[in-house]
Amino acid sequence: MKYKQLGNSGLIVSELCLGAMTFGSGDYYGFKYTVGQQEANEMIAKVTDRGVNFFDTAVSYAKGESELILGKALGKKRKDNLIATKIAFRSSELPFRAGINLQHLIASTEESLTRLNTDYIDLLLLHNDDPLTPVDEVARALESLVQSGKVRYIGLSNFQAWKAATLVQLQKDLGYHRLVASQMHYSLLNREVEHEFIPMSLHHGLGMMVWSPLSSGFLTGKYTRENPAPADSRLNSFDLGLFDREKGYDVVDKVKEIAAVRKTSAVAVSIDFQQFSVQPWQIYFMVPGQVHAWNFEGEVDGYVINFSVPFFQSFLLKQDYLEQFPFFSGVLENAVINLPEHLQPAINHLLENIIQEAESADRLSLDMVRSLLVQLFILIGRLGFDDKGRTGTAYNYTLLRKFLKLIEKNYATLKLPKEYAGLLFITPNHLNALCNQMLDKSAGEVIRDHIILEAKRMLVNLDLSITEVSYKLNFNDNSYFSRFFKKYTGSSPEEFRYRFTIFKPPSR
After folding, report:
1. CB 157 within 8 A of CB 186
2. Above 80 in pLDDT, residue 175?
3. What single string gives the DSSP state of each residue in 43-84?
């Protein structure tokens, strides 16, 4: 699980938030509450085991039953997790028990605390705007709740940008605690918030949670022109009219087209844009800077070990010791290793010992982890050497490693094999022979492929424009960079970015 800072606050939340809108029983204008206590218990146990620490509910969901079920499901885990709830919609028949006036906000918060079985709410959101209540009253009510300790962070939902900005500015002017988050509808079929709300949020430091990112399930593809109302589907009875159906079908068709292009095996890993089907007893070695992603379906069992360069620097006398191993060269052909059967028990034993030592509080446990890792590297490294050719192979790996490190450092300025050969004190022919022998490609192809790889890495970073990527790679002409990229990848920089960039907004 990945975690993110919520707006400009210090609160760290899981990238995925479990929404409890379906918790409860009954019907709300066609919306069905279908998740009971037992199912909610199972859901929350499963997601907390996978790192989710953020849960969203509301006073209006099943008339408070959603909060009650969520509170019971979290139970003793409450202190380890974060709860967001929302107030605005009518909570009783009394005239003043609706909206975001001071009386309703304070009374509903106290009732929520009881239902959730907690002393505080981590994030209180104004569920909707209230045209009757003055903004200064709303600000005063929120400040009172924070000052009392009943609420720790505050936010809003379904507000117009100007109204949200007015409230935030008033809080700043009065020295009140400020809003830190919003919860807005945002999906491929409704991007209205991009026009004003998101720019306003960036200006004021509001994080954004997203509700209905799949447009009530429409983006799953189960709704089609041929079958616009599949059985037991939410939109059949509860449709908020958030998007144009005909345009929606076109978008879903395009999503399916992209999914077909990107289709991978049930369990796969992508390293620097190359796909590898995960097999039992495989090890993947990755170095800093490589772009990687996992695609898992179903239950998967394995080990992931992350360590930085400094982790070994105080332990190993030879600072570049790890660089002798081919699998740390950054060359993908050397990074994916199928363990032979005779080595599998030893490697598994080492990995189990690493976990045991990592969880130990012993003063020397980290040194033991380091020594176990070195044993693992040596055992696997031996697979790449035979005793007869060890000296020659080690020399070639050393020379190749130096060449690759020079490319990493100078790829934007040095683009010819002869320039690198001079730095290595060998002839260009020697460098070409080395690359052909070790990598089955010429030195020029190695340099070119690394430039393309760096371009791909930059293109998946949405903070850089195509022009900026071209500039960083030292292409004086943006159009020349585009032609170069398309010649060797088959797609333009724009097409590559479109295909390989994945947006993952937090789920409601």
Report:
1. no
2. yes
3. HHHHHHHTT--EEE--TTGGGGHHHHHHHHHHGGGGGGSEEE
- Residue 265: its pLDDT value, please? 44
167 Cα distance to chain centroid: 31
What is the model's pLDDT at position 385? 46
Identify whether the C-beta of residue 424 lies closer than 8 Å to the C-beta of residue 406.
Answer: yes
401, two tokens: 């490693």
CA–CA dist 441, 37 (Å, integer):
61
What mean pLDDT comes out for the span 405-414?
A: 92
Active site residue 61: yes
Dump pLDDT digits (tens) for 482-494.
999 999 998 899 8
> SS3 string of 275-307?
EEECCCCEEECCCCCCCEEEECCCCCCCCCCCC
| Rounded-to-integer distance, Cα 19 and Cα 74, Å | 13
**Spatial contact of 105 and 133, defined as CB atoms under 8 Å apart:** no
Residue 306 · residue 243 · CB < 8 Å: no
- State the Cα–Cα distance between residues 132 and 98, nearest whole angstrom: 11
How far is 51 from 42, CA to CA, in rounded Å?
15
Inter-residue long-range contacts of 338-343, CB under 8 Å, 24+ positions, other chains counted: 338/279, 338/281, 338/282, 339/281, 339/282, 339/283, 339/380, 340/383, 343/379, 343/380, 343/383
- b/e per residue, 425-455, with b = 16+ CB within 10 A? eeebeebbebbeebbeeebbbbbbebbbbbb
Average pLDDT over residues 143-158: 98
Q: What was the pLDDT predicted at 387?
A: 38
Catalytic residue among 28, 33, 61, 249: 61
43-87 pLDDT per residue, tens: 999 999 989 999 999 999 999 999 999 999 999 999 999 999 999
SS3 category, 142? helix
Question: Do residues 155 and 118 lie in contact, with contact meaning Cβ atoms separated by under 8 Å?
Answer: no
Side chain identity, residue 342: H
What is the value of pTM for the model shown?
0.58
Structure letter (DSSP) for residue 35: B
Band of pLDDT at residue 501, cut at 50, 70 and 90? low
Query: Tokens standing for 166?
Result: 């007015």
